[in-house]
Amino acid sequence: MDIHRADLAYRRRSLWLLLAIAAGCALALWQLHGWLRDVQAHVATADAAEARRWLRRALAGLALAPAAPLWLWGRGLRRLGRAAGEQRRFPPRDWKTYRDVRVLRDAAAAAWAARSERAGRSAQYAAAACVAAALALWAWLG
Q1: What's the pTM?
Q2: H or E stretch including 97?
């Protein structure tokens, strides 16, 4: 049985990055309440057309927000699947892992490679759906 060894430096860097992202999200959430209060006060005193424009921007932005992360996640999954399929090994030799994992070969590796590519395509389709939803909201509320 072949073992793909974990890269501890990769795990440490990834966890620090995840912590920084979580801290940034917490800071943004903390500031969101004040910003929404200011927007509410501004929209309440504005005319209906301006309120509709604010609503259109907000809803289109919410629909568009997950598009880039979904697209990039899908691209990474498709790269993983392609590399595993070419090497007939999962995980591929040059990929880093958080922990030691058993290496799959031949049919099992091909199944995981196909599954990874399918998941990547699904994530990219979801990103395209987010863009389409944002455009539809923009047109509908326009």
Answers
A1: 0.83
A2: none
Q: State the angle between helix axes of 48-64 and 106-140 in degrees (0 to 180), rounded to the nearest 10.
A: 170
24 residue type, one letter? G
Q: Is 127 exposed, middle or buried (0-12, 13-18, 19+ CB in 10 A)?
A: buried
| Structure confidence by residue, pLDDT tens digits, 56-84 | 998 999 999 999 999 999 999 999 999 99
- Tell me if residue 73 falls in helix, strand or coil: helix
- Write the burial class of residue 79 (CB in 10 Å: 0-12 exposed, 13-18 middle, 19+ buried): middle
Q: Report the half-sphere exposure of 15 (CA within 13 A, side-chain side).
A: 9
Phi, psi of 105 (to 5 degrees): -130, 165
How many structural domains does the chain have?
1
Which residue range is the domain that position 30 belongs to? 3-140
What gap in Å lies between CA 142 and CA 75, rounded to an integer? 32
Host H or E run for residue 3: strand 3-4
